[in-house]
Predict the structure.
Amino acid sequence: MSRPRSPAVSAAVRQGAGVAVATGLYGISFGALAVVAGLSVAQTAVLSLLLFSGGSQFALIGVVAAGGTPLAAVTTSSLLGVRNTLYGAVVSPLLGLRGWRRWAAAHLTIDESTAVAVAQRDPRAVRAGFWATGLGVFVLWNACTLLGALAGDALGDPRAWGLDAAAGAAFLALVWPRLATRSGRLVAGLAVLVAAALVPVAPAGVPVLAAAAAAVVVGLLSPAPGTRTGGDR
Amino acid sequence: MTPAAVWLTVIVASVVSLGLKLAGHYVPQHWLATDRVQRTSVLVTVALLVALVVVQTFADGTALVVDARLPALAVAAVALALRAPFVLVIVLAAATAAGLRALGWG
């Protein structure tokens, strides 16, 4: 086991560390926003430990903040988590794990760990990149969540600090790279229309779910393109 | 939501999240390898996130309103177009809204 690291493995670990720091830092904003949304510090910390998927976590606290039902919050969060199923199917054969290690890898299967893993060519670098990113993000995301939750608790009126606007900006940043494709932009436009039309007439949480349902219909009905365009990780 | 309801939400959502991740690791790969499934999953993610942007920016209860959150979102979009890092985007958006409100608007 004391083989010197190949340059490819070292590069993968460095990439993972960089991604982990960037992602971890935004755990601070998640922690602060979660407390502002009405979660306790303990609930916020447990959410980051157990759910561990940024988009789903932001969505869950968004529905809670808007006064939605638990069912709407769980459904919205879970629909956003469906992409992790695809990621799992992609990285599982690359990692080749059994038993508890496979469960640990599953828990760490998120946008960032998948992206770094699949960007490597060397099989050992794939594994190193996955674990370095997954574990790095896990440690920093949870530490920063706690920090942000404690800070958010002490801030007072969140609107005075613009934290309500920060939540919208966070979602925009998450979706930004996915707007690079034409189909992404078309569905984004559709989602704006559906959500805006339903906010005045539907209970909290429903506008977001309806936009997702519209995307499912588009995805199932639209003709398959000749070749899949890259760029959607 | 009551604290108990929030706990229930947190725990159930976490269990579902791990279940979805495990499904990917254990389900035979070819089940998910179809183009249509992958394409639809990408589109659903986009729709959910965009709808959340709309709700977080324009909703005030069940009313659609324009307030300091809209210029904040515009600033975030410009920052993203200039490839600013995530944290900077968030801070700029919050600062924009906070600044406008300090000036008495929105």
